[in-house]
Amino acid sequence: MKVSIITATYNSASTIGDTLKSVEDQTYSEIEHIIVDGQSKDDTLQILRKFQHLAKVISEPDKGIYDAMNKGISISTGDIIGILNSDDFYTTKDVISSVIELFDGDECLQCVYADLAYVSQNDTSKIVRKWVSGPYDRLSFVNGWMPPHPTFFVRKEVYDTHGLFNLDLKTAADYELMLRFLYKHHCTCQYLPKTIIKMRAGGASNSNFYARLSANKQDRLAWEVNGLTPQWFTLYLKPLRKLTQYF
Prior knowledge:
Spore Coat Polysaccharide Biosynthesis Protein SpsA, Chain A, 32% helix, alpha/beta, globular
């Protein structure tokens, strides 16, 4: 079973080396690592040339990170698709093997997700907070839940059937896609209780109050575009759930 890993890059020279090395070191052999670069102006492309495991590299203008991810998914040939951001990296060498073991054990399984650790920008050994997803229940989305997107692995056929990232959703495009797959279309999923990704802290949607307010509006739109109605408390619980990650 082939796994396609999509990494979108733009001026990622300071972090992309860790990302690439974590994929190169995976013990699972059938990996197609695709880089979609937005014409970086720094040394990103030079760093990419040092890694022989890369299957495809595209460097051209795009409409943002989710447009780049859509490009990568569209040209991928794997049975399973994973997204690895250019400042994230896998925690161990057996991450992909652990994910594939779940898919191999159930041919009806469509999605797998796991846990994620936020780490310091300058010291990736220092954990700032942990995102422990927990088992999935369909009502979880109503209660403000979502899995960490970089841990979300999906069968290619799910993208073919239910579509790619909605570029109109801006920072909530990952939330909308998982809401669409899991909640609207009832895709089967399984929780892998393991921290498989380290992410450098400092996301755009959480940088300040106004960014969080904008993200909340996009989250609401994610329900609307799918013809769904959240509870009055759903989108308030979503950011509040992040508080538990610090303890």
